[in-house]
Amino acid sequence: NNFRLKGLAPWLAALAKLKDMAWVRAVIVGNGDTQPWLKMVSELGISERITFAGPTNDIAAYYQAADMLVHPTYYDPCSRVVLEAQSIGLPCVTTKFDGAAEVIEDGVNGYVVKSPDDIGAIASAVRKIAEGKLLPTADRSTPSTVSGFTMRKHAEHVVKLYEKLLNMRRD
Q1: What DSSP designation does 70 have?
Q2: Span 125-161, pLDDT tens digits
Q3: Which value, in Å, is the radius of gyration of the alpha carbons in the chain?
Q4: Is there a contact between 46 and 12 (Cβ–Cβ < 8 Å)?
Q5: 54, 55, 52: which is closest to 38 by C-alpha?
């Protein structure tokens, strides 16, 4: 819902760099003022490649229609959108500033770029996925990358971290 924080500007700029891949399009799902973004899209010359879909209660339909998820966020403790996309085998591009990046194996089920400001890296990752250059060992029918990534496991890790910090403080 926060297009700026989620990295929409870098994604649009990366899409503009992929001029030779005019068939690569973006559907932006979420709530927010699209006017400044429509202006940027027009200035970048990619108006025909962008659709602002607005908010939805059926995000699964968008995942099913997609070939990849691009989420070059500036900050996200653990984006649900990446976990959801990975759970159905959708390759993802995100940044090291996304806690969900830990479920992505570069070149296998997506790519993690160092910074959302690295437009070239985002474009390169999208190109590789669009050209089918993920490693063939990735079995998209049974995604395993998020199978053990549960709220229970997360809570257990947080509790262990707090216990460790408390013990360090006592010492």
Answers
A1: E
A2: 999 999 998 876 545 454 555 656 666 766 777 788 8
A3: 17
A4: yes
A5: 52
Q: What is the pTM of this model?
A: 0.82
Q: Angle at which helices 8-17 and 35-44 pack, to 10 degrees?
A: 20
Q: How many residues does the chain have?
A: 171
Report the C-alpha gap between 118 and 86 in whole angstroms: 23
Cα atoms in the 13 Å half-sphere on the side-chain side of 142 = 1
Q: Tokens 């998820």 appear where?
A: 69
- Angstrom CA distances, 133 to 28, 78, 130, 145, 164, stand at 24, 26, 8, 18, 41
CB 26 within 8 A of CB 11: yes
| Three-class secondary structure of residue 22 per DSSP | coil
Residue whose tokens read 């997609």: 66
* Helix (H), strand (E) at residue 90: none
